[in-house]
Fold this protein.
Amino acid sequence: MKLPTDANLAELQHAIRTQLPPDLPDASAGILVLIAHVLQQPKTWVLAHPEARLNTQARQQLSQLAQRFAQGEPLPYLTGTQEFFGLTFKVSSAVLIPRPETELLVEEALTWLQLLDRPVRLLDVGTGSGCIALTLANRVLSLQGTASDNSAEALEIARANARALRVSERVTFLQADLIPENFPKYDLICANLPYIPTRKLGTVNSIAFEPETALDGGEDGLRLLRPFFSLSAPHLQNPGLLLAETEAELGAETLALAQENFPEARIDLLKDLNQRDRLVRVQLA
């Protein structure tokens, strides 16, 4: 993207805006994020200094990022970070971008953990960036966690986030498919697995940039959720809690899977802030 060479920040924002697709969502806010990222300053600083100018190197960096933004690449991949539950996580195209909807899972886990007066062992299946396991470890100092993923690249991102949040000593990362038989029992099992039916992948705006394997739940969206519930049953302590995110139109089917594999448990289907089915909660005793 071509930017004027001697423009101030206000003029740069205008120049970028005129070169973006007119239907690009939140374009002005995105431009502000990119300029703040290039300057390594808060967005409030950028807004307060419209007269400031970029040096040649920073302007070239902004030009490259703005071009990628114009092509629809998500902002977290451009800046390399995403906010989740008040924490900053490193992300790359190797991991799914943490969504606000997943904060419901974390909230439910924290509510349950706060009622306990003992250390807890957590298993986070399909950890990706590590946002679930690491947020819980950050908030609950007695928690010991295992975070698994079948992607070595994702685990490297998660390990970097654990170091940044200073919880590496309490969270172990393992490359694995779902829950291997040799895993022990856990007090808390969490999962945000791929659950989008293949036919609906085209409706995901970021599908061209996020790893498809982190989104594609197979023909019916339950390709991984189905074995997950089956494999979880022998690994959940009693008392214990299991939390699994699901697709908005798969609530009933996911609930049925939980009931089939945990017939003695209390099982609830929770809705997100948009009143869509989002989370299956399984509690043993």
